[in-house]
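Checklist before submission:
- one chain only
- standard amino acids only
- sequence pasted in full

Submission:
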Amino acid sequence: MSDFQSHRGFARTFQENKLTIGLAFPLEKSVERPEPFDIAEQMKRAQQAEEAGFAALYVRDSPLYDPNFGDNGVIHDPFQLLAYVSAHTKKIALGTASVVTSLRHPLHLAKSAASLDDLSTQRFLFGVATGDRPIEFPAFKVAREDRDVLFRESIEVARKVWQESYPTIQSTRVGLEAGDVIPKPFLADIPILGTGYAGQSIEWLAEHTDGWLFYAQEVNRQQELIKLWRSATGKFKPFVQPLVVNLSERPTTSPRPVPVKVGFTSGHTFLIDYLHALQNVGVNHVILALKNEERPVSEVIQELGEYVLPHFGPIEN
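Returned file contents:
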């Protein structure tokens, strides 16, 4: 069993041989450029998702807006947005997918994560990544080629300051000789989900993270990767992937690709079958990014809750 079965967010979201479903912010119609969204409406959709039975809600970290990148992410800071969401929800897990570790100081990052886990009463899933937007590295005066080293440092520093009082740390960005980082997580730890390879080996990720968030790809290829992950971990650590879906009003609509990696337009009948296929190869959690341009998102969430989530509901404790 995992070490995090008493962590509310982890226990709601992850279980061996089972697939659950999360949703990615923003919970609104797909748009081509970032626009301030109606925060009150977003909270209504978050509450609707919680009541419908989604396991988790996720926010991406987009430090700078790059109009040429083709993916705007979410315009708000992920920690502040998730803290706001935590105040408007009760039990749904809250995750970052994922925070760019190379552009944030490790001590600030560790304190932000611990604060959010505390404020949400242990519902935070800490997705971490190296970052991939080329314009951000020179803007923050960070060498892009150092991403893998900075990623490792962030995880190692966070775990040390969460688990020890007044630790001494000398690393690439940290020279901690006095003082302490508070609050400490309730469990002295927080579930960390590595994203992609992050410049590391599968063995390093298996040892130092608590789950793997990997990019969507064809089901058979994902199965082979999951086999490698399972052989490296030795105990259950969840495998997570995103999936872009444009849900048709017609339940039996056959799938057709959307212009992103491994995503599709379909009715809920095919979506259920596809998610069962992912569950069968070992995927434990899917983060849905809804890309409907015509249908209201509240209508899509309702349909998913009525027809899809009965097959892939959260783990109730």
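Reviewer check: The two ends are 15 Å apart (CA to CA).
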